[in-house]
Specification:
alpha/beta, 4-stranded parallel β-sheet
Length: 221
């Protein structure tokens, strides 16, 4: 499952891949993908890593669970395959992007272009059974992704972490705020956004300003 992961991550994560909890997770996933329809496709599980190499990483966005509808999840948090209707949270992300950056609302919900510029789009749980939100939680993914976040914090400098919603905000304890910047807001889901906790956070322009301050190239959102 991990054989094709980007080489910049492989050495970084080798210890985790060889850990007993991760072997148990792999066994669980083999059974799940054999008996049920699961998302994303096995080849896309590590797309967050493959599209955003460790050496180019400069922004981290943390999601919770992949989309569990047919054809949606592509291995990047909040992102959907090209041509798929935008889920509500993604629509609100794009609406804030419109207001904050003065950009036209994107036609495609595929965020691969963000990842390729150094935006690490990490879900806390990287897989899910079709139609069953949270079905692959508490099987080892959270231990793995928490380790990834902490290792990024330890090994990198000047990373901008965007923590949207209560679940993501809990990850703040893994981040060294002396080395990195953490921007927090409500979740872009309609429940949170419509109560005033999302719109107006201006995280996209703030991120670009922070990157510019440390001499890094801005993201073309």
């Amino acid at each position: 499952m991990t054989a094709n992961i980007d080489k910049t991550w492989l050495a970084f994560l080798a210890k985790e891949f060889n850990a007993s909890y991760f072997k148990n997770l792999e066994n669980f996933l083999d059974k799940e993908y054999s008996h049920y329809t699961c998302y994303p496709p096995k080849t896309d599980i590590f797309n967050a890593f493959n599209y955003c190499s460790l050496d180019k990483l400069k922004v981290v966005i943390i999601g919770q669970d992949p989309y569990h509808g047919a054809g949606q999840a592509n291995g990047l948090c909040f992102s959907v395959q090209n041509g798929i209707a935008h889920p509500p949270s993604l629509r609100n992300i794009f609406k804030e992007l419109e207001k904050d950056m003065g950009l036209a609302y994107p036609k495609s919900g595929d965020l691969t272009k963000w990842a390729q510029q150094g935006v690490f789009l990490l879900n806390a749980t990287l897989t899910v059974r079709e139609g069953e939100a949270g079905s692959h939680q508490n099987q080892g993914w959270e231990k793995f992704t928490d380790t990834v976040i902490k290792q990024i914090s330890d090994e990198k400098e000047h990373v901008v972490f965007l923590l949207w919603g209560g679940f993501a905000k809990k990850k703040a304890k893994l981040i060294d705020k002396k080395k990195h910047v953490v921007l927090e807001s409500g979740h872009p889901s309609p429940l949170s956004a419509n109560r005033g906790y999302w719109f107006g956070n201006r995280h996209f322009s703030k991120t670009n300003s922070l990157l510019e301050q440390v001499g890094l190239k801005q993201i073309l959102w």
